[in-house]
Amino acid sequence: MTAPNTPPTSTPAAAVPAAAAAAPAEQVCFGIDVAKDKLDLGRSDARAVRTFANDKAGVAALVAHLRAAVPPDRLGTTAIEATGGYEQLVLDALIDAGLPVARVQPGRVRSMAGALNQHAKTDCADARLLAEFARLIQPRLAQRQAAARVELHALVTCRRQLLHIRTEESNRRGTTTSKAALKAIDAVLATLDKQVQSLDRQIRALIDADDDMREADRILQTVPGVSDRIAAVLLAELQELGNTDRRRIASLAGVAPFDNQSGERTGEKHIRGGRATVRNGLYMAALTAARCNPVIKPFYQRLRAKGYKAKYALTACMRKLLGLLNAMLRDGLTWDQLAVNAAKPATPTT
């Protein structure tokens, strides 16, 4: 007896899972290697690199190209390497165009290049590497900053650079015996002092002219140990202060402790990364607060009494002080209004 003919089995189209029928396409990320005169644009799904002029016309052409390169639902992040200012024009243009863009630190990109065994360094290779960095790491997107904040950052940066030059000239003066050279150095020092004083006035006027910055500055300066100059640094270079949690703000400032453990060995925790200029300002604030702040001073003394080195104790004070400042700006409280509990010391780290 033969079996009746049966049609071959098949899965109706309606029975195919929707996810398998229409799998989402992978996003295409881009990388921009920035030079003074040109921009090299790489993409994560191809080796071709396009070059644009680093001026208004070239940036406009780059933005138009990005919009037309892939569909909006497949457009991923564009990574731009920080170059000290040459990237600002294209960064602002991409933010204004509503395109996802991130400014990334060169050190992180080169670390990934080493991990991928990519040792060649050319503009085209860097553009492709930045695109791959954007695809794999998904860095935090950049946001448009208020004009007053941008100006404050520029003034604070300029002041810090002039102070650095002043220190160099002062050191040279101490090793110079020529009267003519001393006269020239003294003239430079006098000019630098005058310019630093002018920047101090401009920074103060800029903060006082902005309602948000003026209020934040007022709150920060109620803390014993935080001067007007340190407050200006925090406002200019740590704009996340008051808008995030204490762990993240500590990481951004470079005072978060990182574990050092391998197998059965547990080493000392150490701080690393973050924004060095903010950390330097916090160090000076903590140094002063350890002498006069009614919360930080006993906190520091307890750690020292337990045998911790001064540097370790000051690092813990920096982290505690930053957490207090973050809470104050978050809640709009001055130092006198803040209920501080300093009974439990944090773990000191270097």
What can you tell me about this protein's structure?
The protein is α/β, with parallel strands linked by helices. The chain folds into 3 domains: 24-137, ATPase, nucleotide binding domain (Nucleotidyltransferase, domain 5, 2-Layer Sandwich), CATH 3.30.420; 147-209; 225-261 and 269-331, no CATH class. The chain is 54% helix and 11% strand. The chain has 13 helices and 9 strands. It has helices at residues 18-21, 56-69, 88-96, 106-115, 123-137, 147-174, 179-209, 211-220, 228-237, 246-253, 276-292, 296-305, 310-331, and strands at residues 28-34, 38-43, 46-53, 75-81, 101-104, 257-258, 261-262, 265-266, 270-271. Strands 3-2-1-4-5 form a 5-stranded mixed β-sheet. Strand 2 (38-43) and strand 3 (46-53) form a beta hairpin. The longest helix is centred in the middle third of the chain and has 31 residues, at 179-209. It is globular and about 60 Å long. It starts with 17 loop residues before the first helix and ends in a 19-residue tail after the last helix. The relative contact order is 0.07.
